[in-house]
Write a structure and sequence with these properties.
alpha/beta; 11-stranded mixed β-sheet; 11 helices
Amino acid sequence: MKPVAVDLMGGDSGPAVIVEGINVALDAGAGEIVVVGSAEACRPLDRDPRVSVVLASEEISMSDDPASAPRRKRDASMVVGATLLKEQKVSAFVTFGNSGAAMATALVKVGRIRGVARPAIAVELPVPGSASTVLLDAGANTEVTPSWLHQFAVMGSVYCAARLGIAHPRVGLLSIGEEPGKGNSLVKETFKLLTDEPSINFIGNVEGRDVMSDRVDVVVTDGFTGNVVLKSLEGAAHVFAHAVLGALSEGDDGVLDLALPKLLPLWNQMTPDDTGAAALLGVNGLFLIGHGASNARAVASAVRNARQLGEADVVETIRKLEGSTGE
């Protein structure tokens, strides 16, 4: 299998954390990795025989305009890495930089799979005691059509099967009620399309309360709603965790010390660090976008998961399902 390429630039904490995560991944048997960045950023890894270095003289920052940056900064690490993916020199490309610029770079440099109208961001939401739920779109497309959501459902099902090992993922359409007639015109029209789609296991409408449950494996919605759901869940989890710790730490009865051994495994299960990056499904290559604030554990997970998705040939499976029509 070809190596995974990782963008060293653009993360909130600079290249050091990404380098640390790459070392964790290498020690865990991630195979060969290509790093893309400045000479200074690549220096800590340039003597490791498991690492190939590709230099880039520019960086797309979080403050850069997402739409124009890939064209203005042609030697930016994100653009160079995407070019490696386009030229099939690597099996996947992972970046922790500007997510809007990453989306634009993927479209400009890698392009869409023939037949796919728009790519979608697929995120994994942890579910205690069960497999994660795949949510898409998580922010790539704020306005969509029923046919786009139909494609998101197909791509999300392929991703879930490859990433989580679920043979026939249960696909749900996010709505304000479970009944087929509930929702706006977009949801109602999409419901009809998904009901007639033979390649997926469509279970009907699901509600917000189902997203982090064992009732559904893939939840499909537009990027605006999906991003609001994602950020709301992240915020609620953060507030709840701090509230629990604050309540347990009150007093001197040692309750917090007794509870922590029980709470830590749950926290580890709920953290997104084991996923590391979200796949941009629908582009003509395996392109993953990680959070700018990713820690070393998240970086290592992103590399591992990129390799797993590459071995499962997710992109080729989507090509076969969606490639019968032109762009």
